């Protein structure tokens, strides 16, 4: 007998029917959750790396990959346009890619972008390497950034080496040996990625040893990248069905119907990137030192010292993220010290000029300009130096004028002052000088209302002289 919905509702009162209803509800809830899970995973996070690769961009990419793994994303796209960057930051990104269970697709875009130096390593380490038309990659030779300006081996005069002269082993190239170690390590590093991802290992080693570069079309032809895509939708269409190997095994990409979600750097990474910019770090350092200098020269105001301390701490934080030459940093601090000495003890510009020269020399050497994106522009450096020189000249001129100005007070200020006789009592005369009543004496007789000029101060008595015809109108009327 077929039961109607009415009979089912009536039977809800029994325990068996309640148990069946609970089972149905749980099944429906499980189906809803299972249906919601694919919708959550149907998005593709897209990260963007622009400019030099440093600690800020490394933290941004590593966090993005970790978040994609937690959310079970189908894959992650890393858009790149970079001239290179720091080795440590690059290795952090590569380690996150190699350990990611989510396939990472590195995509050099837009047209005119590049994945040079560190970008080439990241491209080789990615599960899928793609480029837009009219983009380039390569030039992956490592550059030492520990101490810019270190001595380099030089050839004898004329540029030729005397092959008949045997050089001692101790003098043969410690710098060459260190460079060879770095190049060999980098070549093995990228060759391992090429073998792991099935890409052109021979060209990868040439990119390290010979700093060669390729266009997108040439890279595809030589097996350096996997594909060339016009845009992101075209990229997803081309990788659909491709099988890649991740830490969870072989994964077949199913990109049909996936939605791309742009995840640009948040405010924290943007602020960190701005602070770590070499130009901004140099400006913060200047503001910090000048703020403390002005606070110490005129304590009690508070604002210069507070702003200077904050800027100086931010500058020191930024310097920890940059390849700093500490000799150059010492030159900059010496320049600030000389400028401060010029302000406090004007030496007719000698200390100020020396301070500006030291500051400019330190600014030129502070950051390694051979590392792409980590140099200080010369116009900015010259602008800061000229500003510092102008501040020194202005402050020194004001201090010099203040020294030359003669400030007198008390009895010394009375010499040359004028006053008016107020009373004459026998041989004693009184006069009003600078708002005070003084006893005055003169070579000639004085009369009330007469104008006098102070010649000298003798204790509490002023020696004065008469100013002929200077009687006040009011006293004339009274007489």
Largest sheet: 6 strands, parallel
CATH fold node name of the largest domain: 2-enoyl-CoA Hydratase, Chain A, domain 1
Please report which band the strand proportion falls in: under 5%, 5-15%, 15-25%, 25-35%, 35-45% or over 45%.
15-25%
**Which residues form runs of ≥5 with pLDDT under 50?**
34-41, 145-172, 472-479
Shape: elongated
Give the count of helical stretches: 16
Description:
This protein has 4 domains: 1-33; 42-149 and 175-267, 2-enoyl-CoA Hydratase, Chain A, domain 1; 276-404; 414-478, OB fold (Dihydrolipoamide Acetyltransferase, E2P), CATH 2.40.50.140. Helix content is 49%, strand content 17%. It contains 16 helices and 16 strands. The protein has a 6-stranded parallel β-sheet, with helices on both faces.
Summarize the structure.
By secondary structure, this protein is α/β, with parallel strands linked by helices. Helix content is 49%, strand content 17%.
Helices and strands in order:
Elements: H1 5-10, H2 15-41, E1 43-50, H3 55-71, E2 76-81, H4 87-98, E3 104-108, E4 114-116, H5 118-125, E5 128-131, E6 136-138, H6 174-197, H7 201-209, E7 213-215, H8 216-221, E8 227-228, H9 232-239, E9 243-246, E10 249-252, E11 259-262, H10 267-275, H11 278-297, H12 303-320, H13 326-344, H14 350-366, H15 378-404, E12 418-425, E13 428-433, E14 436-441, E15 451-458, E16 461-466, H16 473-478
Parallel strand pairs: 1-2, 1-11, 2-3, 3-5, 4-6, 5-8, 14-16
Antiparallel strand pairs: 6-7, 9-10, 12-13, 12-15, 13-14, 15-16
């Amino acid at each position: 007998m077929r039961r109607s919905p009415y009979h089912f509702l009536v039977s809800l009162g029994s325990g068996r029917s309640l148990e069946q209803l609970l089972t149905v509800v749980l099944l429906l809830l499980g189906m809803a959750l299972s249906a919601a899970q694919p919708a959550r995973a149907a998005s593709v996070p897209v990260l963007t790396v622009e400019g030099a690769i440093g600690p800020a961009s490394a933290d941004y990419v590593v966090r993005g990959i970790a978040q994609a793994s937690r959310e079970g994303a189908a894959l992650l796209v890393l858009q790149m346009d970079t001239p290179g960057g720091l080795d440590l930051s690059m290795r952090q990104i590569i380690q996150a890619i190699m350990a990611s269970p989510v396939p990472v697709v590195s995509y050099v875009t837009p047209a005119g972008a590049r994945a040079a130096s560190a970008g080439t390593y990241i491209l080789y380490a990615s599960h899928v390497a793609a480029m837009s038309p009219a983009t380039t990659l390569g030039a992956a030779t490592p550059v030492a950034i520990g101490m810019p300006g270190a001595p380099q081996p030089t050839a004898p005069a004329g540029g030729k080496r005397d092959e008949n002269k045997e050089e001692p082993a101790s003098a043969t190239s410690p710098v060459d040996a260190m460079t060879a170690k770095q190049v060999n390590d980098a070549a093995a590093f990228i060759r391992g990625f090429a073998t792991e991802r099935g890409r052109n290992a021979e060209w990868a080693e040439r990119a390290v040893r010979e700093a060669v570069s390729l266009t997108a079309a040439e890279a595809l032809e030589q097996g350096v990248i996997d594909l060339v895509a016009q845009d992101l939708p075209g990229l997803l269409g081309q990788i659909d069905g491709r099988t890649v190997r991740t830490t969870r095994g072989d994964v077949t990409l199913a990109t049909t119907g996936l939605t791309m979600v742009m995840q640009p750097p948040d405010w924290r990474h943007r602020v960190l990137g701005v602070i770590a910019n070499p130009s901004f770090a140099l400006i913060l350092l200047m503001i910090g030192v000048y703020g403390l200098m002005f606070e110490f020269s005129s304590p009690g105001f508070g604002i210069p010292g507070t702003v200077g301390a904050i800027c100086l701490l931010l500058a020191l934080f930024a310097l920890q993220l940059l390849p700093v030459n500490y000799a150059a940093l010492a030159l900059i601090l010496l320049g600030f010290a000389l400028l401060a000495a010029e302000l406090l003890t004007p030496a007719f510009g000698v200390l100020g000029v020396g301070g500006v020269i030291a500051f400019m020399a330190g600014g030129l050497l502070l950051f390694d300009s051979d590392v792409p994106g980590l140099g200080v522009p010369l116009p900015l450096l010259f602008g800061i130096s000229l500003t510092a020189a102008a501040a020194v000249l202005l402050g020194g001129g004001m201090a010099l004028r203040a020294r030359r100005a003669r400030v007198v007070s008390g009895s010394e200020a009375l010499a040359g002052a004028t006053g008016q006789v107020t009373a004459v009592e026998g041989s004693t005369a009184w006069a009003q000088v600078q708002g005070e009543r003084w006893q005055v004496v003169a070579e000639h007789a004085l009369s009330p209302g007469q104008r006098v000029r102070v010649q000298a101060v003798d204790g509490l008595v002023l020696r004065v002289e008469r100013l002929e015809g200077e009687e006040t109108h009011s006293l004339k009327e009274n007489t």
